[in-house]
Amino acid sequence: MIRNPNRGRLAWFGNLGLSLSGWLVLAFLLLPILVVLPLSFSDSRYMSLPLGNFTLHWYEEFFGSAQWLGALFNSFAIAVASTVLAVVLGGLAALGLRHPAMPGKRLIEVLLIAPMIVPAVIVGVGMYFVFANAGLTRSYLGLILAHTTLAVPFVIVNVGSALGGLNQRLLWAAASMGATPWMTLRKVTLPLVSPGLISGGLFAFATSLDEVVVTLFLAGPDQRTLPREMFTTAREALSPVLLSAATIMVLFATLLLLVSRSLSKR
Amino acid sequence: MSAIALPPSLPVVARKDRAALWRAYGLLAPLVLFLLLTFVGPIGTLLWRAVADNELPQALPTTARALSAWDGRSAPDETLFKPFVADLREASPRDLAALARRLAYETPALRSLLATAKREVAGLDGSVAAMGALDQRWLDNATWQTFKRAAGPVGSYHLLSAVDIKHDYQQGLVNKDEAGLYRSILARTFSIAAITTLVCVLLAFPLCVFLDRRTPRTRNLLLLMILLPFWTSILVRTTAWMVLLQDGGMVNALLMALGWVDSPVHLLYNRFGVILALVHVMLPFMVFPLLAAMAGCNRLLVQAAYSMGARPLRVFFQVYLPQVLPGLAAGALMVFIVTLGFYITPALLGGPADQMISFYIAQFTTGTLNWGLASALGLVLLVATTLLYLVQAHLARRGAEGVKR
To answer: In this complex, do B34 and A149 lie within 8 Å of one another by their Cβ atoms?
Structure first.
């Protein structure tokens, strides 16, 4: 007789155990982030249970301090600038990588992806040595260049996969009807790969917004970014203001996630 | 296709091809140039600094040449003392300070020895008697071996130090006195990464099987619960764990309310907290490749095995697991590689005994300014990462091929 493995008491317990462990791991992933939200609205200093009364005090402190607000602004400015630079440089390079039989293609591909693989501390120390000689440490330009370097691989990967799905016949059709390469690029290629460009840009933006290791090496006293400010504050003493900063970043992550999801559905 | 007879040479296409090639290079050029300046240059500088030993040749150029000629085994004599005294007269205080710092990495006492020699240099003539009268240690072989190891301009001193080895000219490669300092840091880094990887595998496997059995609609909703942490800043997640795990934090409040413990358990600033947070950060990197491998697994084979009477455990190990293994291995290696280089999470959640190699690289770079050792440790980390990544890329390719089959 053939046993049906999905029936019987043992299988029932197995499925229960599986669902239970699945939900537990999901809870482990999500709860630590969700817990931050109510604590940032509680007037208890100790950031624990029982929750205190509702207050916006920590947000007032965040938005009232030039230090935190400046860090938030710096983070966004640097993220926007490095995203634009990464999307332009990475988008062009991804188009170049479409050439099927270019000598040295493997080497170039490895170079373009490498900043994603090499540990951030190594990139940070190397840049610290070189940028100091070039006068780029303690400057916004240095940080933007560094964040662009770290963000470029994400643009290459995303645009590359969008280009991989591109129907070559459409490009031939355009060319056969007399379109110049530039016109083909503008009217055919770019509209078709724009989801890849945008999701690459989102990854680049998130990378810059999250980056703190290289920033710690390169930034001077003026270049406070939100993660750097959170790192130094958390090192000294935990304060509920940190949680309001964290909440703002979680909200931002949610936004990025939703945009990227809606792109991948299209 | 082959029915159309093509002429053997296609001059027009070839010319167009060349134009296409140049266009491709032209498109790649800006980014490649950019990365040469911001990435390849910095990494190259780091690698160079791991082997560069410039302080002694800079401060005492003729002594450096004499040291290279000296075999390092015999007793030091006037062939070393004469150029040393001559160089010492000329040396600038700034270069000497740099040299003193470099020599003190190995033998702290040499700093004052060198300073005294510079002060008394007027009375020295480079003879054995005068050097011995200045300080008996100047006649020691060990003192001059330290000089020889720093004679540069390229040397293995920093690299060997990063694995606690010293090149002794009389005995060959020997363990350093403070044996095991960096080797234990390296071992700690690897063990933290290994435990994190293991826990990630153990948590991700049931989660992925669970997700794999849901309908696509439910699965996509549940995946959002993994994607939100994935998109959230590592710093936010690390801070959240600090708040949760502190002595008066929620986890302890919960444990005490349940009556499991009477006084708060220390969960922060130790290995437990570091690994817990690392697992939380790295778990999505494990889930995505594993889930893809499970989705690509051929379920007919599993059903066939059952229909032929195989027991569940046998089906799992002989039919199911081999199919998802490449994806599992690729994900696990990715987790391991990324964890090796972690800095932020252990720095915030760990105690002094839980810091990983990145922490020391950062500390030697900006704290104690021992750039040679920082670079050498960086090189060790870089080599480990690169080798593991090559294996990972190979496995990921094989995993993708398995899915296609």
So the answer is: yes
Quick one: closest CA in A to B366, which residue?
A: A217
* Contact across the interface for A93 and B228, Cβ inside 8 Å: no
B9 within a domain of the structure (yes/no): no
User: Are residues B24 and A99, on separate chains, in Cβ contact within 8 Å?
Assistant: yes
Q: Is B146 helix (H, G, I), strand (E, B) or coil?
A: helix
The answer to the question of residue B44 being in a domain is no
Do B245 and B142 share a structural domain? Answer: no
* Closest residue of chain B to A182, computed from CA coordinates: B23
Chain A partners of B225 at a C-beta cutoff of 8 Å?
26, 29-30
Q: Does B274 touch chain A (CB under 8 A)?
A: no
A122 to B46: CB separation less than 8 angstroms, yes or no: yes
Confirm or reject contact between B19 and chain A (CB < 8 A). Answer: no
Provide the residue range defining the domain that includes A93.
60-265
CB B378 to CB A121 under 8 A? yes
Residue B73: inside a domain, yes or no?
A: yes
Å from A252 to nearest chain B CA?
8
Beta bridge partners of B174: B166
What gap in Å lies between CA A3 and CA A15, rounded to an integer? 17
In this prediction, residues A159-188 reach a mean pLDDT of 87
Instruction: Let me know if residue B216 belongs to a domain.
Output: yes
A17 found inside a domain: no
For residue A12, is it within any domain?
A: no
B206-211 contacts at long range (C-beta below 8 A, 24 or more positions apart): B206/A18, B206/A21, B206/A22, B206/A25, B207/A21, B207/A22, B207/A25, B207/A26, B207/B287, B208/B287, B208/B290, B208/B291, B208/B294, B209/A18, B209/A22, B209/B294, B210/A18, B210/A19, B210/A21, B210/A22, B210/A23, B211/A22, B211/B287, B211/B291
Q: Nearest CA of chain A to the CA of B112: how many Å?
A: 29
Residue type, B146: T
Whether residue B189 sits in one domain with residue B138: no
Q: What is the CATH number of the domain that holds A256?
A: 1.10.3720.10
Q: For residue range B39-68, what is the model confidence (pLDDT) as tens digits?
A: 999 999 999 999 999 999 999 999 999 999
Asked whether residue B388 falls in the same domain as residue B243, the answer is: yes
- A47-100 pLDDT, tens digit each: 777 777 888 989 999 999 999 999 999 999 999 999 999 999 999 999 999 887
Q: B142 and B234: one domain? A: no
Q: Alpha-carbon distance B314 to B302, whole Å?
A: 10
Q: How confident is the model at residue A6 (pLDDT cuts 50, 70, 90)?
A: low
Of A46, A152, A206, the CB nearest to B231: A206
Per-residue pLDDT band for B399 (boundaries 50, 70, 90) equals: low
B189 touches chain A (CB under 8 A): no
Establish if A241 belongs to a structural domain: yes
Of B153, B169, B197, the residue that ends a domain is B153
Q: How far does A14 lie from chain B, in Å, by closest CA?
A: 11
CATH (domain of B193) = 1.10.3720.10
**What is the domain range of residue B66?**
55-153
Q: Domain count of chain A?
A: 1
Is position A37 within any domain?
no
Mean pLDDT, residues B199-216 = 94
Between CA B38 and CA B264 the distance in angstroms is: 48
Do B264 and B119 reside in the same domain of the chain? no
Q: Which of A48, A89, A102 sits opposite B34 (nearest CB)?
A: A89
What residues in B contact A242, CB-CB < 8 Å? Answer: 239
pTM listed for this prediction: 0.91
User: How many independent structural domains does chain B possess?
Assistant: 2
Concatenated DSSP letters of B4-43: SPPPS--HHHHHHHHHHHHHHHHHHHHHHHHHIIIIIHHH
Q: Which residues of A touch B330 (CB under 8 A)?
A: none
